Amino acid sequence: MRILITNDDGLSSRGCQSLEAELRGLGEVWVIAPDRERSATSQAFSLRDTLRLIQVQKNHYTINGFPADCVNVALFSGRFPVFDLVVSGINHGINMGEDIHYSGTVGAARHAAIHRVRAVAASTDIRDKFADFSLVARELSLFLSQHWRRLRPGICYSINLPSTVPLRGFKAVPPGRRSYFDAYRTIEKNETEEILVLNETPPGYWTHAGTDFDYFERGYATITPLGLDNADRNELEEWRKIEPMLY
């Protein structure tokens, strides 16, 4: 098996390094990561900007772009082999609820899924960038060694692993609901413009039964399969009922 690792934290992140160390036991591993932190960039993509690809060491590269750029270059630049699996992470912080729409970690995996490559986005609740990620990486590696062939191309599997060990198991769950408390402060201002910065207030969440937050709190790793069809089927049916009145 040939595995591509990417992330939104950069090549030097402990989550990435621990993941690579564990996945080497499953096959040939390549790492292509942004040259700096690219958190909350979702599936942003460099359409017209040039990209600088730098080989840091054998099978290790950085790109001055977004996580999705890393995947796209890996798949379509002609410089890399065909990959069987893309693993994005391990992210420093969980990606649950509506986080999945903002996360660069999930965005990279979703980009791989669009191109029908098996794709996993892995996140954990460790926020300390100097912490030990090895136990979380080992749990993920063990899961992938047993189940990677069950992953369907065209689906992005968002996996959140608690840092508490041992795990109680894995649960396949829908995303829960976040509660955000966004606010900005002005750091510079003149007559015509302001410079604003977002206060990074930690978001809250609702612990609805059976969701990712619910089972994660109970010590389970959560698996949320994310499809590429974002249509709301119930709302679609409601609009179809009134189609004759729309003209």
List keywords for this structure.
247 residues; alpha/beta; Stationary-phase Survival Protein Sure Homolog, Chain: A; nine-stranded mixed sheet; two-stranded antiparallel ribbon; 7 helices; 13 strands
Question: Quick recap of the structure?
Answer:
The protein is α/β, with parallel strands linked by helices and 247 residues long. The chain contains 7 helices and 13 strands. Strands 3-4-2-1-5-6-7-13-8 form a 9-stranded mixed beta sheet. Strands 9-12 form a two-stranded antiparallel sheet.
> What do we call the CATH homologous superfamily?
Survival protein SurE-like phosphatase/nucleotidase
| Secondary-structure element string | EHEEEHEHHEHEEEEEEHEH
- pLDDT under 50 segments (min length 5)? none
Number of helices: 7
Average pLDDT, to the nearest integer? 95
Task: Tell me the strand percentage band.
Answer: 25-35%
Instruction: Give the helix/strand class.
Output: alpha/beta
Shape: globular
Compute the CA-based radius of gyration: 19 Å
Report the sheet with the most strands, covering strand number, pairing sense and barrel closure. Answer: 9 strands, mixed
* Name of the level-1 CATH class: Alpha Beta
N→C terminal distance = 54 Å
> Helical percent range?
25-40%
**Assigned CATH architecture:** 3-Layer(aba) Sandwich
List the domain count as a whole number: 1
Instruction: Give the beta-strand count.
Output: 13
CATH topology: Stationary-phase Survival Protein Sure Homolog, Chain: A
Arrangement of strands in the largest sheet: 3-4-2-1-5-6-7-13-8
